[in-house]
Amino acid sequence: MPRAKGSRLTVKDLARDLGMSVSTVSRAFYPDAVIADATRQTVLQRASEIGYRPNPFAKSLITKKTQIVGMVISDLTNPFYPEVMTQLTTLLQKQGMNVMLASAEHPDGIDEAVDLLLMYQPDLMIVLATNLKSHARERCEEAGAPVIFFNRLSADGLGFGVSCDNINGGMKAADHLAKLGHRELLYVSAFPGASTNIERRQGFCDQAVARGLNPPQVYEAGWFTYEAGYEAGLAVKDLPRRPDGVLCANDIVAIGFIEGVQEGIGLKVPEDMSVIGYDDIAMAAWPSHRLTTIAQPLEEMMAATVDLARDLASSIGHAQHILHIPPGPLVERSTVADRRKQLD
Question: How wide is the angle at C-alpha 85 spanned by C-alphas 157 and 149, nearest 5°?
Fold first, then answer.
């Protein structure tokens, strides 16, 4: 079709080319619209041939849906979340939803990230790796964008959420260490307000006591970062009792912790101290780390999130709820030793 260089094809151009009305051509791009199948196929085939694509902004004025999913994140330094973002974005796109990402370097910047996304009228929001304040969540809902928390829970316990059963995961780690003869345990805590951290700590500490061990010591690393884990490793020398088994709040903290222990104070993992991480990021399996860890049930978590997102974007009614998915397996690699022979 002849047109000025750089100009965009419009639905009027396509209708003129086909000799059809604009309303008939427009209906061909809506799956639920009433139009003969043969006519729809003719329109779609010609549109493909000449490179016409419907204007999503014009479409949103009619459907009141933008097909935009706002994604909010504040922890891009944790390898777990880029992995999740890549896979989750692909799954959402297969459902016809487009992801718009807003990140904040610090949790205090989350409100600004949310306000930025709301300018584009997303159909819903998915929040990764951060706590959203109650008033921000309510602001999203008032704007017609319900919020799904992924791998975190809302600070007030309301809204929609998809999370691993982190209490159960913490219990798995305590059971594994106790079974292999560890007697003095440590939990390396990360961001204190994160539901993931709170639940993993609770499950680990409660199960250790249930197994007849002393209550585990807790070291507050402060953040889910390699640097925080490294500093925690250095701090082992100052603890009242030297641990022989450790659960870290996530894999990247565990990797930093191991290097802090080995390079900073000269202890060996697992000979002197066993260490377990949480998440099973790709880096955990690298030959340089070989980290024993609790796997997150990522496929199940992402599938549940996409199902919920599709329903909410389609205005299918859902009562607000939190879905806890059982953790994946404990993946045994090279950072945990069997100490039962030492006890004989």
Answer: 10
Q: What phi, psi does 63 have (nearest 5°)? A: -85, -15
Looking up residue 219, the CATH number of its domain turns out to be: 3.40.50.2300
**CA–CA distances in Å: residue 193 to residues 110, 125, 247:** 15, 21, 18
Core vs surface per residue 15-49: b (16+ CB within 10 A) or e: bebbebeeebbbbbbeeeeebeeeebeebeebbee
Q: How far apart are CA 297 and CA 151, in angstroms?
A: 10
pLDDT score recorded for residue 298 = 93
How far does Cα 86 stand from its chain's mean position? 10
CA dist list (Å): 131 to 107, 114, 153, 196: 8, 12, 7, 11
Domain containing residue 320:
68-164+298-325
- Is residue 227 one of the residues assigned to a domain? yes
- Asked if residues 66 and 145 have their Cβ atoms less than 8 Å apart, the reply is no
pTM confidence score = 0.80
Q: Do 312 and 267 fall within a single domain?
A: no
- Residue 5 backbone dihedrals phi, psi, to 5 degrees: -60, 130
Do 255 and 183 lie in one domain? The reply is yes
User: pLDDT, tens digit, for every residue of 43-94?
Assistant: 999 988 888 877 655 555 455 567 889 998 877 778 888 888 899 999 999 9
User: Is the peptide bond preceding residue 270 cis, with omega within 30 degrees of 0?
Assistant: yes
Q: Give CA torsion, residues 153, 159, 164, 168, to 10 deg.
A: 70
